[in-house]
Structures are given as C-alpha cells and as structure tokens.
Design goal:
Elements lengths: L11 H7 L4 H14 L3 H8 L3 H18 L2 H18 L8 H25 L8
Length: 129
C-alpha cells in the first residue's frame, strides 16, 4: 500500500520532509501515533484536576502531533499546555473550558482520520475505536 500523500488534519508533505523525505518513516510514525494515543482522551480526562499530570498528557500529545504533521491538533494542545504551565508555576490562571473543548474536538477528528488511514493501509490493523 503506498503511503498517502494527503490525510485530513495532517500536513503530510511537511511531516515527510522532517523525516528525511522518507514517506515510509512517516507512515510508521503515524502507526505509532494511532496505537499510542488510542486511549489518550480517557487518560487526559482522568488527569484533569491535577495540573502537572494534565500538562504532561497534553505535552505528549502536542509533541507527537507535531511530529506526524497534525498541526492544528498540536496548536490546540499547545494553547492548553501554555495555560497549564502557568498554573503549575503558581500563577492564578483560570483555564477556559473552550481550550479543552477545542483540544478534544481536534483530537477526535485527527486521531480518527489517522486510524482510518492506518486501518485501510495496514493488513491486520483492525483494533481501535
């Protein structure tokens, strides 16, 4: 199966360029993203209320999303992470619920897009949501 050149929610061209112009390397990274973050939403929601733990969950997603070219997801995570870092530093910051809602919606759309592409292009990749 050839590696897709486009994928909803991803800048595939830029991600492949960051991976030494090796599309297969990006495809493998996308598969790791799908597998590793399959339960991310549940673990993230369980961390809400513990600013340090939530920041770690959001940071991991932000970094991984940027790596595979999911720029909108990475930006949504970065916005929430910035506020969580302020709270962790002792600043009295109220985190708008809209930041979490935006991140949740972006995650759901992006992960589903990646999962569907991975499932369609990888024999035996039938597990998921």
């Amino acid at each position: 199966m050839p590696v897709p050149r486009t994928l909803d929610g991803f800048d595939v061209t830029a991600a492949v360029a960051r991976m030494l112009d090796q599309p297969l390397l990006w495809w493998q990274a996308l598969g790791l993203f799908v597998a590793h973050f399959a339960d991310w939403e549940q673990t993230w929601q369980a961390a809400i209320g513990d600013d340090g733990l939530e920041q770690k969950r959001v940071h991991a997603l932000r970094s991984a999303a940027a790596n595979v070219g999911a720029l909108a997801l990475s930006e949504a995570a970065a916005s929430l992470e910035a506020q969580l870092l302020k709270k962790c530093a002792g600043q009295a910051v109220a985190i708008p619920e809209s930041l979490r809602e935006r991140l949740q919606a972006s995650f759901r759309q992006t992960w589903r897009s990646a999962f569907e592409a991975w499932k369609a292009g990888t024999p035996g990749a039938e597990e998921g949501r």
